[in-house]
Design a protein that fits this description.
By secondary structure, this protein is α+β, with helices and mostly antiparallel strands. It is built from four helices and 18 strands. The chain has helices spanning about 25-35, 75-90, 165-175, 215-225, and strands at about 5-10, 15-20, 45-50, 60-65, 70, 95-100, 100-110, 110-115, 140, 145-150, 155-160, 185-190, 195-205, 210, 235-240, 245-250, 255-260, 260-270. Its main location: cytoplasm.
Length: about 280
């Protein structure tokens, strides 16, 4: 038995999309196997999507299973891929995405997808981080970070040049630091001189650097504005996989905008060869 999938990516952040009606007995095991870039299809996660077309705009229930088999409550680029997938199937340019972090609206304009990212928080209990007060530019496990939750936790550090940082060396101690009861993503940023930032992110659940991270891009913009490092709107953020724009509405909520591409379709076997 095989299960069909569609492969999408948003600025290099790539996902296998499987309809939630497809039977997969162990979603975590399938993600571990098929997200592997040497022995599987290769991806930053698997999105299980349930489409509810009776609503206007249509709704999509999104569950993200990461390469380590865990689930994540939110993924900015993943949600934009889910939106594109749903728009392609409903002939619309607007959808609502139900995530574990809340329901978010997505719109497609001129070939790019914008998704609401909710209200970011610095509250220690909501990040979460073991601290009495919000953490701004404090050294934690060797990196000077600001802690924010943009759907998932991020430790954001500003550096002179992201390309000069050995992220695979400096990120894991922070990602697994005792200060973080649920772990954290680790995002570094360097200013471009025009109010924007270059980005690199080591993602929790992927346990490696990814080509792009939407929640990380939003985290950079939110923290930079809070610390007075930029007053741009939108804030241009440039991960290795492409360009993203982060904007803010009157309520302080962020939106994330960028391209999405449908790469190819295929099939995977839900059970491992040993189980067949």
């Amino acid at each position: 038995m095989t299960v069909p999938f569609q492969k999408y990516h948003g600025t290099g952040n790539d996902f296998l999309i499987i309809h939630a009606d497809e039977y997969v007995s162990d979603r975590g095991a399938l993600a571990v196997r098929e997200c592997d870039r040497e022995n599987g299809v290769g991806a930053d996660g698997i999105l299980y999507l349930a489409l509810e077309e009776k609503f206007r705009p249509p709704r999509v229930v999104m569950t993200l299973v990461q390469p380590d088999g865990s689930t994540a409550p939110m993924c900015g680029n993943g949600a934009r891929c889910a939106a594109e997938w749903a728009m392609d199937r409903t002939d619309t340019d607007s959808v609502m995405i139900d995530t574990q972090s809340g329901t978010l609206r997505a719109d497609r304009t001129d070939g790019v997808v914008t998704i609401e990212m909710g209200t970011p928080t610095f509250d220690p209990d909501d990040v979460p981080v073991r601290a009495d007060d919000p953490v701004f530019e404090e050294e934690i496990d060797g990196l000077e970070v600001t802690m924010v939750n943009t759907g998932v936790p991020h430790a954001v550090a500003f550096v002179d040049d992201v390309d000069d940082v050995d992220l695979e060396a400096v990120a894991p101690p922070v990602r697994h630091g005792d200060a973080f009861p649920k772990g954290t993503n680790v995002t570094i940023a360097s200013p471009d001189g025009d109010g924007g930032f270059d980005q690199r992110t080591y993602e929790r659940g992927v346990e490696a650097e990814t080509d792009s991270c939407g929640t990380g891009a939003v985290a950079i913009a939110v923290v930079a504005r809070r610390l007075g490092r930029t007053d741009a709107d939108p804030v241009e953020v440039r991960p290795p996989g492409g360009d993203l724009q982060v904007s803010f509405n009157d309520r302080g909520n962020a939106t994330l905008t960028g391209p999405v591409e449908h790469e190819f379709d295929g099939e995977v076997t839900p059970e491992s060869p040993a189980e067949l």
